[in-house]
């Protein structure tokens, strides 16, 4: 299978630079699969899990907190607000964030910002999904 360059960037760091066979991304229009020699495209990304297949055949995941992607000249660049490799995620911290967000959403009379709590829950669930072994 043909390969292409894949990089994930955040404002703070370069999360990943590698050669891959395939990438699946959570775009604003749904899941998008990218293979080598894909037509040029730019798309907005949602909070979700990016799945990619390395040239070794190993499948890996990255949790992202939204952003943009660009495929051009056989190179896919993801510019994310936040991004964590599945192997870097602290599962206990993500589980704690999930439980805290669920408690805030359950409090009917609380003065929490419910949209922020929903986003926090979505991010925590995404981090837990990315940390899971397939």
What do these coordinates show?
The protein has 134 residues and is of the alpha+beta class. It folds into two domains: 4-86, Sandwich (ATP Synthase, domain 1), CATH 2.60.15.10; 90-131, Single alpha-helices involved in coiled-coils or other helix-helix interfaces. Helices cover 25% and strands 47% of the residues. The chain contains two helices and seven strands. The protein has helices at residues 91-106, 114-131, and strands at 4-9, 14-27, 30-35, 41-54, 59-72, 75-80, 83-85. Strands 1-2-4-5-6 form a five-stranded mixed beta barrel. A hairpin with a 4-residue loop joins strand 1 (4-9) and strand 2 (14-27). The chain is elongated, with a radius of gyration of 16 Å.
Number of strands: 7
CATH structural fold name of the largest domain: ATP Synthase, domain 1
| Helix segment tally | 2
Structural class: alpha+beta
Q: How much helix is in the residues?
A: 25-40%
- CATH first level of the largest domain: which class? Mainly Beta
Q: Profile the largest sheet.
A: 5 strands, mixed, barrel
Poorly predicted spans:
none
CATH architecture of the largest domain: Sandwich
According to CATH, the homologous superfamily of the largest domain is: F0F1 ATP synthase delta/epsilon subunit, N-terminal
Overall shape: elongated
Number of domains: 2
Distance separating the two termini: 22 Å
C-alpha Rg, in Å?
16 Å
Strand fraction equals over 45%
The main sheet orders its strands as: 1-2-4-5-6
Q: Which series of helices and strands comes N to C?
A: EEEEEEEHH
Q: Average pLDDT value? A: 90
